[in-house]
Design brief:
about 250 residues, alpha+beta, 2 domains, four-stranded antiparallel beta sheet, 6 helices, 8 strands, about 20% strand, disordered N terminus
Length: about 250
């Protein structure tokens, strides 16, 4: 994503996430009418945030509502927690450094609502799943908040929409898939990192979602996606559905 020098150009992600003050949003709305680059960038941020949030969220169990309603009368209402003081940033302007943090917070909020329901309705197994989800969220948030984070979008030959957010400093990357067709029985989708023509395994997925890539994405030139036997393969056995460059 291209960085711009002026303050107005640095607010696209915050605008897409609804993180602007009313006066800032009004001013930025006017700016968008004259700036095609910002319109495009804001639309990309909205799409990326929606995909990441949908990918890590989890539906509550079918019986969750009935159980919560049955137990709610026995839960004591706690008073609200009020901050000791509140301050407003001088001038109301947002720093670009805060933008990926806001995006990470949006992803975490979308997922942790489901985690809370899991913990209320189930036992140790789902608490372990909640911990795993939290660890994934921590990694995703760290990549999004990295100063050198970069985002690339792609479309696989089977119609899957893909997004990769990568940080060379952290040597981490996250891959998000949307509209991923279900694999045929006995098959799974496998991710690869292309290191100078050598494809190295980087993770498995069989449905829409976000995967933290394994391996060394900082040294990779592209991310690949193939359909492999269940359990994965040490090397690709089919033509790639996607080979998306990680660098411009």
């Amino acid at each position: 994503m291209k960085h711009h020098a002026t303050d107005a150009h640095t607010l696209t992600a915050a605008y897409a996430l609804g993180a602007l003050e009313d006066d800032e949003r009004t001013a930025f709305d006017a700016h968008l009418h004259a700036c095609e680059a910002c319109r495009q960038e804001a639309a990309e941020f909205e799409a990326t945030a929606a995909r990441l949030a949908a990918a890590v969220s989890q539906p509550p169990p079918a019986a969750a509502k009935a159980q919560v309603m049955a137990a709610i009368d026995g839960v004591r209402q706690l008073p609200p927690r009020l901050p000791t003081h509140a301050t407003k940033p001088a001038g109301g302007s947002l720093r670009r450094k805060a933008v990926p943090l806001a995006l990470a917070a949006g992803v975490a909020a979308a997922a942790l609502g489901g985690v809370a329901v899991w913990q209320a309705q189930n036992g140790q197994d789902l608490r372990a799943r909640a911990r795993q989800t939290q660890q994934q969220l921590d990694t995703v948030s760290a990549v999004l908040a990295a100063p050198d984070a970069r985002t690339v979008h792609g479309r696989a030959s089977n119609g899957t929409l893909t997004t990769v957010v990568a940080s060379d400093r952290q040597n981490r990357a996250v891959f998000t898939a949307a509209r991923l067709p279900a694999p045929t029985p006995g098959k799974t989708y496998q991710l690869w990192l292309d290191h100078d023509g050598i494809m190295r395994p980087a993770g498995l997925l069989d449905h829409d979602g976000t995967v933290v890539l394994t391996g060394n994405p900082a040294d990779a030139g592209a991310v690949g996606l193939t359909l492999e036997p269940a359990g994965g393969s040490p090397q690709p056995t089919t033509d790639p559905l996607l080979l998306m460059p990680l660098r411009a």
